[in-house]
Amino acid sequence: MTAPVQPTLDGTTSTQSADYETWLAIVWPVFIAAAATGRTFTCYSVADVNRLPDPPNPRAHWGRMIHQLRDDGYIRPAGWACSDRPTTRHSGVRTWKGTAAARREVAA
C-alpha cells in the first residue's frame, strides 16, 4: 500500500509506502537485480533509475535496507563517490558492488 504522490524538495514527485515490510517487498528485488549486474552503484542511483517509492521513514529505512543486503551477503562496499542526489550538494556517499550470492539469487 502506498500513500498519495507527494512533492519533494527538488520539485519532483514521489510516492511513499505506508509500512516498511510492503516497501521492502517492492525494492528488495530491484536491489538484488542491481547487485547481480556486477556494476558499482549507490543506493540513490538504483532508486532513481527505477523510480522506487520512499519508505515510511526515508532517513532511516534506506540505510537499514542497504545494510541488510550487506549483512545477507548480497553486496559489499566498493568505495566512495560524490552523490548525484539533487539535495546533497555532492557529498560523499558509499558505493556498493554485488557479490556472487546476488548473481545466484537472480539466476534461481
Assigned CATH architecture: Orthogonal Bundle
How many beta-strand segments?
4
Approximately how much beta-strand content do the residues carry?
15-25%
Tally of structural domains: 1
Write a structural description.
- There is one protein chain.
- This protein is α+β, with helices and mostly antiparallel strands.
- The chain has one domain (16-107): Arc Repressor Mutant, subunit A (Orthogonal Bundle), CATH 1.10.10.
- It is built from four helices and four strands; from the N terminus they run E-E-H-H-H-E-E-H.
- The chain has helices spanning 20-36, 43-49, 58-71, 100-107, and strands at residues 6-7, 13-14, 75-82, 92-98.
- Strands 1-2 form a two-stranded antiparallel sheet. A two-stranded antiparallel sheet has the order 3-4.
- The chain is globular, with a radius of gyration of 14 Å.
- Mean pLDDT is 86; it is low at 1-6.
Task: Sum this structure up briefly.
This protein is of the alpha+beta class and 108 residues long. The protein has helices spanning 20-36, 43-49, 58-71, 100-107, and strands at residues 6-7, 13-14, 75-82, 92-98.
